[in-house]
Amino acid sequence: MNARSARTNEAPSGQQRVRVVVAERNPLVISALREMLECDGRFELLGAVQSGKQLLELAVKTKFDVAVIGWRLADMDGADVLAEVQSRKLDVRITVFSNDHDIGILKQCVRLGAQGYCFQFDDPHIIFETILAVAHGRICIPYIDINKVNDTPLAQLTVRERELLAVLSDGWTNLQIATRTGISENTVKYHLKNLYDKLDVRNRAMAVALYSSEKRRSPKQPVG
Questions:
Q1: CATH assignment at residue 171
Q2: Cα–Cα distance list, 91 to 13, 126, 191 (Å)
Q3: 61 lies in a domain?
Q4: Long-range contacts (CB closer than 8 Å, 24 or more residues apart) made by 180-189
Q5: What are phi and psi of 12, to 5 degrees?
Q6: Contact between residue 216 and residue 178 where contact means Cβ atoms under 8 Å apart
Q7: What does each C-alpha distance from 65 to 59, 82, 156, 165, 187 come to in angstroms?
Q8: Which ranges of 39-158 would DSSP assign to H, the alpha helix?
Q9: Are residues 34 and 121 in the same domain?
Q10: Are residues 108 and 211 in the same domain?
Q11: What is the pLDDT of residues 32-74, one digit of tens each?
Q12: CA–CA separation, 35 vs 118, rounded Å?
């Protein structure tokens, strides 16, 4: 990334600057982003943190337009953050700022509801335009075959596993699932472990976030 030393691209007269929060574990990346954003009059950097917990706390206390997050934070990764945002129903628009060209990460971000995605080695112009697009309510990600994005791990699930995922999204506990299906809690835990393995997630929140994202993308059936 090349930081610029002079303020450029001033926001049009009367137009508010885009309020940005940065979450990134690498202090050098934070420093470069800070300099880039502060040298561009279209943006206002409200804060920079290194952990997902700090970002989520900021999202509750502070009003901002876009969170620019690294894929690996001090305490969690981007998937965890996106899942928590969905689980807590936070009004946060997120651009993932990745240093990894792994297409699997990009697909996971799309499935979990990220609105923007760019690379740390992109030209600053691309990074700025991605942030601006997300701030203005658009989705801005690198080109990817949409058919491959939609081919989510949920497609591998059996009917029973989809039913289990649905009740998880409704907030059922392991005990409630066991009681209402007539199986033991240990059996529920066994089924959940298999479900998480199939979805390539680590916990309930991430599984529910994937399920919620697919439901939002699914076309609604016509009425009548």
A1: 1.10.10.10
A2: 27, 24, 32
A3: yes
A4: none
A5: -55, 150
A6: no
A7: 10, 16, 36, 32, 44
A8: 52-61, 78-87, 103-111, 124-135, 146-150
A9: yes
A10: no
A11: 999 999 999 999 999 999 999 999 999 999 999 999 999 999 9
A12: 18
